[in-house]
Design goal:
Blueprint lengths: L5 H9 L5 H19 L2 E3 L2 H16 L10 E5 L26 H8 L3 E6 L33 H8 L5 E5 L6 H7 L2 E4 L20 E5 L2 H11 L19 H6 L10 E5 L9 H16 L3 E5 L7 H16 L18 H12 L2 H14 L5 H24 L2 E5 L15 H5 L6 H5 L4 E9 L2 E8 L5 H14 L16
The structure holds glutamine.
Length: 494
C-alpha cells in the first residue's frame, strides 16, 4: 500500500476496499515515523487531514465521488492555503497565514483531494538542493547523506519515501524536474500559462509554473488535469489553452505502449563533457530502449543552450527582486524589533528575514534592473531568451519531442555545494531552457548510477503535454523503474 500510485489507491477506494480515512491514516503514520529523518514536511495537521478524509468518504458514500476523491496530495510551502501557515520556508514569512487559497489549491479541493500538509523547499524556491530552507535541509530517501534536489525537494522526498502518494511542486528553472530526477519519481512542468499562478508566492513571474510530482506518468496527468484551466484573476493563465483539456483526454494520452513513428531529438548540447559519465550512459541506454519501442532518434542542435544559465540568472533574479520588494516589514511577515525610523525598519526587517541566497538574488536582480544597466543585462538577456525559444521552434520542425538527461549529476552530498553558488547554479543546466521557452517538460526515472536515481527529461512543443505523456508512458510501460523504491523506507531494492 504505501508505495501505491494515486490511480491504484483510487481503484481500491472505488471498489470499497478501503476508505479515505484509512488511506490518510496510513500516510500520517509514515510521516510520523520518517519525517524526523527526512524533514520533507514542514507543516502537518493530522486532525485536519482526517477531517478532510472523513468529508471525502461522505461524498463517496453519496455516489458523488470527484476525480481525486480521497486521494492524499501534499503541497510545497509556496502555495497559499487558508488552512495552516504558508511560509515559503523563509523567516520573513514566519507564521504567515494566507487569507485565501491559491487557485490550484481550490482546484484540488474541488476535485476531492485530501491535502496532507506543506513540504520543505529552498527559501522562496531559490536553490537546487533544499538546503536554503529556513526549516533546515531535507534529505533524499535513497541516501540520507544526500540532498533531494530542489527547490521542491520536500515534495520529491515525501513522494519517493511514500509519505504521500503525490505532491505539488513549482518549477521556475527546474524545481519540479530536477528533484523528481534525483529522487527517482515523475515530475511534470506544464506549458507556461496552463496553470494559474494566483496564490503561488511569486519568484520569477515569467517562468514560474506549478505541476505534479508523482510515482507514475498517469498520476501526473490526473493532477495536471485537475489544476489546469483559465483563472480570470491571473492574466498569465491562458483563456482557451490549446491541446488536451478534459480528464479523459489527459488519461487517454497515457495509454501509449510503443513509440512507433515518434521522432525523438537528441540535442548534442545536452550530452556534454563535464556531466557524470554514469548519468550519460544511463540516459543513452534509455534512448536505445526508445528505439526498440519504435522511435527514431534524430541528432539535433539547440545552439544557444550555452547561454541558458547566464540568461536565467539575469532574468530570474531581476523578477525576484521586484517580487520580493513587498516584504518590507509592513504588509507581510517579519518586522524587526524597535526600529529607529522607517528606513531602519525596512532594512533590518529584510536583513533579519531573508537568507543569504535570497539576498544574493535580490542584489543581483536590483543591479541588473538599475538605470544604466537595464539595457546591458535584462534587455540583452530577454533578447537571448528569444534565440533560445527559436532554437526549440526550429528543432520541432524536425522532431516531435526532445529527450535529454534531467540533471548532469545524481544527488550530491549535503553541504557539498553550499559554499559555491555558481556550481549549484549549474545543477539546472538541462532544465532551465525549458522555462525560458515556456515549454512543457517531464522527468521520469530511467535507471540508477552509483545506486542513485537518474532522470530522463522529455521536452515537447508548447501545449503538447499529450506528446510528453505519450512518450513517457510508453517508456514507463516497457521498464520497471517506477516500481523501484528505497529499501530503507520499506520499499523494494533497486
Ligand atoms: N535552481 C534554480 C534556482 O535556484 C531553479 C529554481 C526553481 O525552479 N524554482 O533558481
Amino acid at each position: 500500500m504505501p508505495f501505491s500510485s494515486l490511480s491504484e489507491i483510487k481503484t481500491r477506494l472505488d471498489a470499497g476496499e478501503t476508505s479515505a480515512v484509512e488511506v490518510a491514516k496510513s500516510y500520517l503514520d509514515r510521516i510520523a515515523a520518517h519525517n524526523n529523518t527526512l524533514n520533507a514536511f514542514v507543516h502537518i495537521d493530522p486532525e485536519h487531514v482526517l477531517a478532510q478524509a472523513e468529508a471525502s468518504d461522505k461524498y463517496r458514500s453519496k455516489h458523488e465521488a470527484r476525480p481525486l476523491e480521497g486521494l492524499p496530495i501534499a503541497v510545497k510551502d509556496i502555495f497559499c492555503t487558508q488552512d495552516g501557515p504558508t511560509q515559503c520556508c523563509s523567516n520573513i514569512l514566519k507564521d504567515f497565514h494566507a487569507p485565501y487559497d491559491a487557485h490550484v489549491i481550490t482546484k484540488l479541493k474541488e476535485a476531492g483531494a485530501v491535502l496532507v500538509g506543506k513540504t520543505n523547499m529552498d527559501e522562496f524556491a531559490m536553490g537546487s538542493s533544499t538546503e536554503t530552507s529556513a526549516f533546515g535541509p531535507c534529505r533524499n530517501p535513497w541516501n540520507t547523506d544526500t540532498i533531494p534536489g530542489g527547490s521542491s525537494g520536500g515534495s520529491a522526498s515525501a513522494v519517493a519515501a511514500a509519505l504521500t502518494p503525490a505532491a505539488l511542486g513549482t518549477d521556475t528553472g527546474g524545481s519540479i524536474r530536477q528533484p523528481a530526477s534525483l529522487c527517482g519519481i515523475t515530475g511534470l512542468k506544464p506549458t507556461y500559462g496552463r496553470v494559474s499562478r494566483r496564490g503561488i508566492i511569486a519568484f520569477a513571474s515569467s517562468l514560474d509554473q506549478a505541476g505534479p510530482m508523482t510515482r507514475t506518468v498517469k498520476d501526473s496527468a490526473m493532477i495536471t488535469a485537475a489544476i489546469s484551466g483559465h483563472d480570470s484573476a491571473d492574466a498569465t493563465s491562458v483563456t482557451d489553452a490549446p491541446g488536451i483539456s478534459s480528464l479523459n483526454e489527459w488519461l487517454a494520452a497515457c495509454d501509449k505502449t510503443d513509440m512507433k513513428g515518434l521522432k525523438i531529438g537528441r540535442p548534442k548540447e545536452y550530452f556534454v563533457d563535464g556531466m557524470d559519465d554514469a548519468v550519460r550512459t544511463t540516459v543513452e541506454a534509455a534512448l536505445k530502449q526508445c528505439e526498440e519501442l519504435g522511435a527514431e532518434i534524430v541528432d539535433i542542435s539547440l545552439p544557444h543552450t550555452k547561454y541558458a544559465v547566464a540568461v536565467y540568472y539575469v532574468i530570474a533574479p531581476s523578477e525576484a527582486s521586484a517580487n520580493l520588494s513587498r516584504y518590507d516589514g509592513v504588509r507581510f511577515g517579519h518586522r524587526c524589533d524597535n526600529p529607529e525610523d522607517l528606513l531602519d525598519m525596512y532594512t533590518r526587517s529584510r536583513d533579519e528575514g531573508f537568507g543569504s541566497e535570497v539576498k544574493r538574488r535580490i542584489l543581483t536582480g536590483a543591479f541588473a534592473l538599475s538605470s544604466g544597466y537595464y539595457d546591458a543585462y535584462y534587455l540583452k538577456a530577454q533578447q537571448v531568451r528569444t534565440l533560445i525559444q527559436q532554437d526549440f521552434i526550429k528543432a520541432f520542425e524536425q522532431v516531435d519531442i526532445i529527450a535529454t538527461p534531467t540533471s548532469p549529476v545524481t544527488a550530491f552530498k549535503l553541504g557539498e555545494k553550499t559554499d559555491d553558488p555558481l556550481t549549484m547554479y549549474l545543477s539546472d543546466i538541462f532544465t532551465i531552457a525549458v522555462n525560458l521557452a515556456g515549454l512543457p517538460g517531464l522527468s521520469q526515472p530511467c535507471g540508477f548510477a552509483d545506486n542513485m536515481p537518474v532522470g530522463l527529461q522529455w521536452i515537447a512543443p508548447a501545449w503538447q503535454e499529450d506528446t510528453l505523456l505519450g512518450a513517457a508512458s510508453a517508456y514507463e510501460s516497457a521498464t520497471d523503474w517506477t516500481a523501484k523504491t528505497p529499501e530503507a523506507f520499506g520499499g523494494g531494492a533497486t
